[in-house]
Specification:
Strand order of the largest sheet: 1-2-3-4
Distance between the termini: 51 Å
CATH topology of the largest domain: Nuclear Transport Factor 2, Chain: A
CATH class of the largest domain: Alpha Beta
Helix content: 25-40%
CATH architecture of the largest domain: Roll
Radius of gyration: 23 Å
Number of helices: 3
Number of domains: 2
Shape: extended
Strand content: 35-45%
Number of strands: 8
Largest sheet: 4 strands, antiparallel
Order of helices and strands: HHEEEEHEEEE
């Protein structure tokens, strides 16, 4: 009798612990996912109210010396635009580019894939470095280096590159 009672309570304690861990994991995931897109709604509102953009296709984030929301949108004349919206400061100095002037992301990916066949792509995002508009290509090579490559957004030529060696395995 005593042993079955101990098993009964142990079983329920384990079930409660598992459910608690699962619930905590769900809340943590949701919190991290919402933090990743924090401020997108406000940026969207400001862009639609204060620029000629009438439709926003997507928003990404670039973090460099300064952080930007990168807006892919179009105006009333169906011209596709790329806008860098700075996250700091009250006065927003926007950088705007016509998307037809830039090298498409698929071409950048194809060019990168030819140069680095055994690499693992992490991300490709438009970047603004030293007032120059670039593609930031982040990847890991087969030597276990983490690489950030900045390519000209118009023709794909390399602007600068950072390589980080993995310290711990």
């Amino acid at each position: 009798m005593r042993r079955s009672r101990w098993l009964f309570w142990s079983f329920w304690v384990i079930i409660i612990l598992i459910l608690s861990c699962f619930t905590y994991g769900v809340f943590l995931y949701n919190d991290l996912a919402s933090a990743k897109t924090a401020g997108y709604d406000e940026t969207k509102k400001q862009i639609l109210e204060n620029t000629s953009i009438t439709n926003i296709d997507k928003i990404e984030q670039f973090n460099g010396a300064a952080s930007y929301h990168v807006i892919f949108g179009e105006n009333k004349d169906d011209e596709k635009k790329l806008i860098f919206y700075p996250l700091k400061g009250n006065e927003k100095d926007l950088t705007t580019i016509d998307q037809h002037e830039i090298m498409p992301k698929k071409e950048v990916l194809g060019q990168w894939n030819e140069q680095c066949k055994d690499c693992n792509l992490v991300n490709i995002v438009p970047a603004l470095v030293d007032e120059k508009v670039l593609w930031e290509v982040t990847y890991e090579n087969n030597s276990n280096q983490y690489i950030i490559d900045y390519l000209d957004i118009h023709d794909g030529t390399r602007y600068e590159q950072y390589r980080f060696n993995r310290t711990f395995k």
